[in-house]
């Protein structure tokens, strides 16, 4: 059985193979896709098994001097990006539930003071946000008006919350999670991540957990919540000078 669901594998295959494949070997593939948006005009995905896939728009392929039957490698491709003034944003880790771990999640009865939040919880959620730093709020991107929001409480106070929204018009729900500093290390974040992920799975969505490579606490949380590393995904930087 595949490690990850068909939904996840098909989504990423479409991103990198819906177009003309310029070069492909056992470890590196480059394709041209005219349907990429401007802010995704170059993307790179390194999967956890060590394969690297890159995709660019036709205009960027011309600028980089990419053409059919060209002998390419990942270092060569990255050098061409650099020479053309194309800067990448900096990769995010992508985590998903494996099919086996998703089955475990769906059977689980989560304990603790957990509940789904709605607009009726605006006052509670506002107090929660006001207790967090601006940096934490920006990094987590947890919002009450997202598609699904779950919270964990301690003595009637919201201390950890996760929210999700459908991602890239796919059956994938991207999640963010934030726990107030004094309440970290108590298992709140793990519980809200699993709760909201179970909800997403029940609605037919694959939960997606993204974090920056240097966010060690977030990486640890993903693993503690039962998610498995799918790969590292990078896109063009908004500040790219190309």
Write the layout of secondary structure elements.
Blueprint (H helix, E strand, L loop, with lengths): L5 H12 L2 E5 L3 E5 L9 E6 L4 E5 L1 H7 L9 H10 L8 E5 L2 H8 L7 E3 L5 H9 L3 H7 L7 E7 L2 E10 L5 E8 L8 H15 L3 E7 L3 H9 L3 E8 L7
Parallel strand pairs: 2-4, 9-10
Antiparallel strand pairs: 1-2, 3-4, 3-11, 5-10, 5-11, 6-7, 7-8, 8-9
What is the structure about, briefly put?
By secondary structure, the protein is an alpha+beta fold.
pLDDT averaged over residues: 94
Overall form: elongated
Biggest sheet character? 11 strands, mixed
Count every helix, treating DSSP H or I runs of 4 or more residues as helices: 8
Structural class: alpha+beta
Order of helix and strand elements from N to C terminus: HEEEEHHEHEHHEEEHEHE
Uncertain segments of ≥5 residues (pLDDT<50)?
none
- The tally of beta strands, per DSSP, is 11
How much is the radius of gyration in Å?
20 Å
The portion of residues forming beta strands comes to: 25-35%
Separation of the first and last Cα atoms: 43 Å
The order of strands across the largest sheet is 1-2-4-3-11-5-10-9-8-7-6
Helix content: 25-40%
Structural account:
With 242 residues, this protein is an alpha+beta fold. The chain is 32% helix and 29% strand. The chain has helices at residues 6-17, 58-64, 74-83, 99-106, 122-130, 134-140, 188-202, 216-224, and strands at 20-24, 28-32, 42-47, 52-56, 92-96, 114-116, 148-154, 157-166, 172-179, 206-212, 228-235. An eleven-stranded mixed β-sheet has the order 1-2-4-3-11-5-10-9-8-7-6, with helices on both faces.
């Amino acid at each position: 059985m595949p490690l990850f669901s068909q939904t996840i594998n098909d989504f990423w295959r479409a991103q990198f193979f819906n177009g003309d494949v310029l070069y492909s070997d056992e470890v590196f593939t480059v394709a041209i896709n005219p349907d990429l948006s401007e802010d995704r005009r170059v993307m790179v995905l390194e999967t956890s098994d060590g394969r690297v896939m890159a995709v660019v728009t036709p205009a960027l392929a011309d600028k980089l001097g990419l053409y059919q039957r060209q002998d390419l490698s990942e270092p060569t491709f990255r050098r061409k990006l650099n020479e053309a003034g194309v800067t990448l944003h900096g990769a995010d880790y992508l985590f998903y539930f494996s099919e086996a771990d998703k089955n475990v999640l769906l059977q689980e009865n989560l304990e603790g003071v957990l509940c789904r939040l709605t607009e009726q919880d605006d006052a509670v959620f506002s107090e929660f946000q006001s207790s967090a730093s601006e940096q934490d709020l920006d990094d987590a991107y947890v919002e009450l008006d997202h598609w699904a929001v779950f919270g964990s409480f301690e003595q009637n106070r919201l201390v950890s919350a996760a929210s999700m929204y459908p991602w890239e018009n796919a059956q994938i729900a991207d999640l963010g999670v934030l726990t107030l500093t004094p309440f970290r290390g108590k298992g709140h974040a793990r519980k809200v991540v699993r709760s909201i992920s179970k909800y997403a799975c029940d609605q037919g969505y694959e939960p997606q957990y993204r974090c920056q490579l240097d966010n060690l606490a977030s990486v640890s949380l993903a693993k503690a919540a039962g998610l498995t590393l799918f790969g590292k995904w990078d896109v063009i930087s908004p500040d790219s000078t190309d």
